[in-house]
Write a structure and sequence with these properties.
Elements (H helix, E strand, L loop, with lengths): L1 E6 L5 H10 L4 E6 L11 H17 L4 E4 L2 H6 L1 H12 L4 E3 L2 H10 L4 E6 L1 H6 L1 H8 L5 E6 L3 H6 L3 H18 L5 E4 L8 H8 L4 E4 H15 L17 E5 L4 H10 L6 E2 L1
Parallel strand pairs: 1-2, 1-3, 2-9, 3-4, 5-6, 5-7, 7-8, 9-10
Helix pairs in contact: 1-11, 9-10
Length: 268
């Protein structure tokens, strides 16, 4: 089965790396909308239009399931894609996001007070708060928009981004000392987890979506074997990994290799 992953840029490649390691038997197609990066400052209509273009491409490539590896798109357009786009165009296929699995993880870990670091669009959407309220879970969530982190990470300046994130976190702890967990609420931020864990030690637990999504996806795919037959495959050859970027820059080759752990895959 082909599984698609969609992000506004390159950050979702960390999700691809983790998911492909956990479910190596499947093929993967990655769509990075680098031409329109970042999504955090875009309107809801713009994000929906960009997301539809991504879905058209990934389903056109034969994906039976697409994971929106982007918190901003998950917050702004996932429900609309599921309710409007899929029934009209691909009723047998599925689109999943990254926010609900993250919330389920917090609930299962019995988290009581957490800090959410995310893009402005994700914070303004209130998606995390709404999903927690739907489940009646009394988690105290402090959401902070961190708009400068994505450009730094996309530019390969991870150490600077980690120091910037450290500043946001320390400021939040001054006014909310009961915080025990930090949600890295943007797939780009997965690149900061190791540095932040080293900086804060045992004081905080960092929730990184590349560590959450693979197991959630494995369970979902196992519960929906019908997806294997949605898009007939000619034979069952070796699993493939393909990257499609809507705009390319020479430095993306280096960043792509870095985010994939030094392992390159076919780039269209």
């Amino acid at each position: 089965m082909k599984i698609g992953l969609f992000d506004s840029g390159l950050g979702g490649l960390t999700i691809l790396r983790a998911v492909a390691k956990a479910l190596p038997e499947h093929s993967y197609v990655y769509y990075g909308d680098t031409a329109n990066l970042p999504y955090g400052d875009k309107t809801e209509d713009e994000i929906y239009r960009f997301s539809v273009a991504a879905m058209d491409y990934l389903f056109g490539e034969g994906c039976a399931l697409v994971v929106i590896a982007c918190n901003t798109a998950s917050a702004e357009t996932l429900r609309r894609l599921q309710d409007e786009y899929l029934p009209a165009h691909y009723p047998q296929r599925r689109i999943l996001g990254v926010i609900i699995p993250t919330i389920e993880n917090m609930i299962s870990d019995n988290v009581k007070e957490a800090l959410l670091l995310a893009t402005k669009r994700t914070v303004d959407s209130g998606k995390y708060e709404r999903e927690l309220a739907k489940r009646g879970y009394p988690l105290v969530l402090h959401a902070v928009a961190t708009p400068g982190l994505v450009p730094l990470i996309e530019a390969g300046q991870g150490s600077v981004a980690a120091e910037t994130a450290k500043g946001y976190i320390k400021e939040a702890l001054v006014t909310h000392p009961a915080i025990t967990h930090v949600i890295l609420g943007c797939t780009h931020y997965t690149e900061l987890k190791d540095a932040l864990r080293e900086l804060f030690g045992n004081r905080l637990t960092f929730l990184s979506q590349d560590e959450i999504i693979p197991e959630k996806l494995r369970v979902y795919v196992g519960a929906h074997p019908e997806l294997m037959e949605v898009v007939p495959e000619e034979g069952r050859g070796a699993a493939t990994r393909t990257i499609h970027l809507t705009a390319h820059r020479p430095d993306y080759d280096r960043i792509t290799a870095q985010l994939l752990g030094g392992v390159m895959v076919q780039d269209e």
